[in-house]
Amino acid sequence: MRTAGPPEAAPESMRRYFDGLYAAADDPYGTRDRWYERRKRALLVASLPRQRFRRCYEPGCGTAELTPGLAARCDSVLAADFSAHALRAARQRTAALPQVRLAQHRLPEDWPVGERFDLVVLSEVGYFLPAAQVQALARHCADSLDADGVLVACDWLAPFAQRACPTEEVHALLGAIGLAPLVVHSEDDFCLRVWARDARSVAQREGIR
């Protein structure tokens, strides 16, 4: 759930906003304790079409509440955020997870070009970017995903002060890179989508049909 804040969405003002937010509270969005947030994370992880992944990239990880769930399914996770305050909390949250690497990245310019991933998770991050930057983000996803790669986007639907792009447009731009849609879960509050290079369903992958 996103709270109100300053109306401007320029990168520097957004950095100040998030640094102030995380400096004031270690879990400003209630991601650790709210049932809404815990349920949403469980739905996201359960929607992954494979049991195991090699390398995951999770930009916009915040305080890394989702990261342990991804780490349980992945050999390695690169979790990144542009807020130094959020990353300090993320380090504490993932200290016992040697497969997790943290980095300070601003999207889309700090995308780890040259690194390959078979899972990219964009949870509650795309709508903070204007459409042109979401397009650049989508291109990075297309360039970085392996032949068996999976892309996940999960985003809040309601209006809020820091929104720079409608969730529907974010998902349309990500879907336009040519991956096969596997999962669409939409509620009044959020929409979760999963795309993959392999268009087979989970049952087809397991030879059930």
Automatic annotation (TrEMBL):
<feature type="domain" description="Methyltransferase type 12">
    <location>
        <begin position="60"/>
        <end position="151"/>
    </location>
</feature>
<dbReference type="GO" id="GO:0008168">
    <property type="term" value="F:methyltransferase activity"/>
</dbReference>
<keyword id="KW-0808">Transferase</keyword>
<dbReference type="InterPro" id="IPR029063">
    <property type="entry name" value="SAM-dependent_MTases_sf"/>
</dbReference>
<keyword id="KW-0489">Methyltransferase</keyword>
<dbReference type="InterPro" id="IPR013217">
    <property type="entry name" value="Methyltransf_12"/>
</dbReference>
<protein>
    <submittedName>
        <fullName>Methyltransferase family protein</fullName>
    </submittedName>
</protein>
<dbReference type="GO" id="GO:0032259">
    <property type="term" value="P:methylation"/>
</dbReference>
<dbReference type="Pfam" id="PF08242">
    <property type="entry name" value="Methyltransf_12"/>
</dbReference>
